[in-house]
Design brief:
This protein has helices at residues 2-8, 42-74, 84-87, 92-113, 115-133, 141-161, 167-188, 194-197, 206-229, 231-237, 246-260, 273-277, 281-301, and strands spanning 31-34, 37-40. By secondary structure, the protein is mainly α. The chain has two domains: 1-165, Orthogonal Bundle (Tetracycline Repressor, domain 2); 166-305. Helix 2 (42-74) runs antiparallel to helix 4, helix 4 runs antiparallel to helix 5 and helix 11 (246-260) runs antiparallel to helix 13 (281-301).
Length: 305
Amino acid sequence: MLRALIKTVRPHQWVKNLFVLAPMFFHRDVFLSTPAGPALNLLITGQAVAAMAVFCLLAGAVYTINDLADATADRIHPIKRFRPIARGEVTVGAARILAPALVTVSLALGSLLSWQFAAVAMLYFAENLLYTFRFKKVAFLDVSFIAFGFVLRVVGGGVATGVHPSGYMLACTALLALFLGFGKRRYEIESEHADKHRAALRHYTAKSLDVALAITGSATAATYVAYTLDPATRAFFQSNSLWLTIPFTVFGILRFVFLASGKGGKGLKSESPTQEMLHDVPFVVNLVAWVAVVVAIVYRLRPSA
């Protein structure tokens, strides 16, 4: 039962909450100068990690509630039918206890950070409830709600660490989330009886999703390019070389489109292309290279004092 309960809250999906950590790196005191070189400020890092934990717990509650609401539809899905609630490994009663418990613990922890952060966390939870019980069935609006959830993650991370996220950060987050959301719908529409698994798919077409992917992917890339070239960005990172990361970003976007459209020829092995891409060697290698280049640029050029 314990293993099934853990699976229900989908810890593998909590990687999305890394967005909560993003504002931390724009705190002027996040890096401390030590004899060994730059080091993370443990207080700020602790606040950011605590904020991320709150969002992870809330996400677990949302996934549990979502699985309770979708259990019937999940049972006819080729992959989702293996979810614990759909399979009967977690009873309805247990799930109804688990979700409120996670919400209570997460909001109690959030209030310890600040009432402002707790308010953002509450808004995130309420927004997800609206998505689950109403707007997940409305094409395009469903993805917009998902994107808003990612923006709230960034805002929450900023409130927890005392950083005001820039317009570029919020825009990149919203556009990337829209892009990933449309990619997931494009991936799902290829499955058999897709409209029975997700009601919104009745109102999507492969062509409309390809257009949405093209628009949001291009907008995401353009915003990222503008961000790397912005004088404020170059001043903050003490570098004029962040533009070197642009090719990795563009490749990642194109590779995601490739995976989302099912052109890899592997069939639908995962619930979403975001899971598929984490097992895709070219994508992972590109991601690691992007991180390596960013770290090399930032640390090599950051003053030691």
